[in-house]
Write a structure and sequence with these properties.
single chain, alpha+beta, Aminoglycoside 3'-phosphotransferase, Chain: A, domain 2, 2 domains, 6-stranded antiparallel sheet, 13 helices
Length: 339
């Protein structure tokens, strides 16, 4: 496969533009990430999931440039450039050589894993000061993030329902693999009932100016507890996943904390954020968006079952993660029924 050839070639330190002693590779369902000593190079896979279309070289270049531009909002100095991948002497390379680009890579400064919120959390070192700083950065970002008539259309319930309907359609094939039929039906039915019973709540959020150009993928691996608190890897590939309610944005991070057993920390963060952002009366909506976020993560992990470049061990781990996310979504549904 050409993808495997590309990975093999670019794992050679001699193929990268900056000196490095080693290169490791991490794959997601949509990206190949090359991690060198000081820099990271991210290449988009030629995938088309419907909600995401990287199927042509032109689209992959466009979304690489979008990734750099959009992420500079919350992470100054981290996203550096978009580099062409070329072929030279029969091998893929990121070193500047004559010829046309065959792929593109986003070049970033490498952030040591020790600074990632997830790493700090796993070491039991998250403090109230960390949470207050995160709440402050997010409340400020959400308060100034772009808002206009086009973006606000994504706050209408019938517009957001496109996302949840798509999720259920795409997860059907995994019933019996990563989600039980009972859980699938319980979550989908609850979601439909929520829309019917809370139409006015969605409209109130639009009226209050809470529909913004947000981050869209706000979880612990994307928050860096270092100077400036950079937040990386926003959604660049589909505006409807980035345009939305600010509560939907922070709901992802709260869900991620709870998924990893940090329920008390999630409550502290939510309390601080609500105060700084001037939020209130949104507990039901928060549960709705946490269900949505957990379900999306279950779906994304399920997708890895269909990726031929991922080995059986990684797929087994993806199944376990997906099952846990779907079960969390069901737990939230049960909580939501009490509100």
């Amino acid at each position: 496969m050409l993808e495997n050839e590309l990975i093999n070639d670019l794992q050679d330190p001699a193929s990268l533009p900056e000196p490095t002693k080693r290169v490791s590779v991490v794959q997601t369902h949509i990206s190949i990430v090359l991690i060198a000593d000081d820099f990271v190079y991210k290449i988009k896979k030629p995938m088309n999931f419907g909600f995401l279309d990287f199927s042509t070289l032109e689209k992959r270049e466009f979304f690489c440039r979008q990734e750099v531009e959009l992420n500079r909002r919350l992470s100054r100095g981290i996203y550096l450039d978009v580099l062409p991948v070329k072929r030279a002497a029969g091998k893929y390379t990121l070193i500047p050589v004559p010829g046309d680009a065959v792929e593109y890579a986003v070049k970033m400064k490498r952030i040591p894993e020790s600074y990632l919120m997830k790493t700090v959390f796993e070491k039991g070192l998250i403090t109230h000061r960390h949470l207050e700083e995160i709440a402050s950065v997010l409340a400020e970002f959400h308060g100034v993030a772009l808002r206009n008539e086009e973006i606000e259309q994504f706050g209408f319930p019938e517009r957001f329902k496109v996302n949840t309907d798509e999720n259920f359609d795409q997860v059907k094939k995994y019933i019996g693999k990563t989600i039980s039929r009972n859980a699938f039906e319980q979550i989908s039915q609850w979601t439909d009932i929520f829309y019917r019973n809370n139409n006015a709540l969605f409209h109130e959020r639009i009226r209050r100016g809470r529909i913004r150009d947000c981050h869209g993928d706000l979880h612990m691996e994307h928050i860096c507890l270092m100077e400036g608190l950079p937040i990386i890897d926003c959604i660049e590939f589909n505006e409807r996943f980035r345009y939305g309610d600010t509560v939907a944005d922070i709901a992802f991070l709260l869900m991620d904390l709870e998924y990893h057993g940090g329920g008390d920390l999630a409550q502290t963060l939510w309390t601080a954020y609500k105060s700084l952002a001037g939020e209130g009366g949104v507990d039901r909506l928060l549960v709705f968006y946490k269900v949505y976020r957990a379900f999306v993560r279950g779906k994304v992990n399920s997708f890895q079952l269909d990726d031929p470049s991922i080995d059986s061990r990684e797929k087994s781990a993806a199944v376990e993660r997906a099952q846990k996310y779907f079960e969390l979504a069901r737990t939230y549904v049960q909580e939501g029924e009490c509100l």
